[in-house]
Design brief:
By secondary structure, the protein is an alpha/beta fold. The chain has a single domain, classed as P-loop containing nucleotide triphosphate hydrolases (Rossmann fold). It has eight helices and five strands; from the N terminus they run βαβααβααβααβα. Strands 2-3-1-4-5 form a five-stranded parallel β-sheet, with helices on both faces. Helix 1 packs across helix 8, helix 3 packs parallel to helix 5 and helix 4 crosses helix 7. The longest helix is centred in the middle third of the chain and has 26 residues. The structure holds adenosine-5'-triphosphate and ligand LXEULUCI. The site of the ligand Cc1cn([C@H]2C[C@H](O)[C@@H](COP(=O)(O)O)O2)c(=O)[nH]c1=O has 12 residues, from helix 4. Pfam families: Thymidylate_kin.
């Protein structure tokens, strides 16, 4: 039975250029919150729903027009919000998403050069009243991210992009962090995993 008196949960997004180390810390943050008695839903974008995962497969592996790419990112997001994020928050669960709309601004906007006004219009259409309560931006120099990627995996469409693409993505992430300092916390992800975990514990304490 659903508890209609449950207070709304909180929404945390994880961001950073590919290889910055964000995915490494998701399970740790989920476990830290669960130890504090929160129910946690972990998800990702693009993806997070059956339809979203199909869109993810296309987005990460097929060439397409830049605007198609942006629209499909937001289509995946619309489904994710409707099926996963909003129901969880209303139940009082906490939601952790591996990427959200800041990634569209960074990758389609910064990296690929799509007009920011178009992204803002999509954001207003798809989630006019929803923003993460906290965004953890894992920031590293490009060479560190590249070395981590090269050491670990077969690269997808985005991960095969060149250094100037990731430099533009990183700049846009940092620009947004300066624009929304109350929401976006920049984490120096060159630090060891243990040091980063200690930083995360401190940040989560403040969130309640
Ligand atoms: N602080 C760290 N120090 C050293 N290695 C790290 C650190 N954080 C992550 N790594 C390693 O770097 C690799 C990439 O990390 P991870 O998959 O978390 O990156 P990511 O930012 O989520 O990348 P993507 O967005 O492409 O999935 C992993 O092998 C991980 O173990
Ligand atoms: C949400 C979102 C994602 N992307 C890109 C960023 C990454 O390269 C991939 C997702 O892969 P990850 O390793 O699981 O982070 O998609 C994007 O370009 N725009 C977006 O809105």
């Amino acid at each position: 039975m659903t508890d209609s008196t449950a207070s709304r949960g909180k929404f945390i997004s994880f961001e950073g250029i590919d290889g910055a180390g964000k995915s490494t810390h998701i399970a740790f943050v989920a476990a830290t919150l669960e130890a504090k008695g929160k129910r946690v839903v972990s998800s990702r974008e693009p993806g997070g729903t059956a339809l979203g995962e199909k869109l993810r497969d296309m987005l990460l592996h097929e060439k397409m027009h830049l605007e198609t790419e942006a629209l499909l990112m937001f289509a995946s997001r619309r489904e994710h919000i409707a099926q996963v994020i909003e129901p969880a928050l209303e139940r009082g669960d906490w939601v952790i998403s591996d990427r959200f709309t800041d990634a569209s601004f960074a990758y389609q906007g910064g990296g690929r050069g799509l007009d920011r006004a178009k992204m803002e219009a999509l954001e207003q259409w798809v989630h006019p009243h929803l923003q993460p309560d906290l965004t953890l931006l894992f920031d590293v120099p490009l060479d560190v991210a590249r070395a981590r990627l090269d050491a670990t995996r077969t690269l997808d469409k985005f991960e095969q992009e060149k250094a100037d693409f990731f430099a533009a993505c990183r700049n846009e992430y940092l620009r947004r962090a300066a624009q929304f300092p109350e929401r976006i916390v920049v984490i120096d992800s060159t630090k060891s995993i243990a040091e980063t975990q200690a930083t995360l514990v401190g940040i989560l304490e403040k969130l309640g």
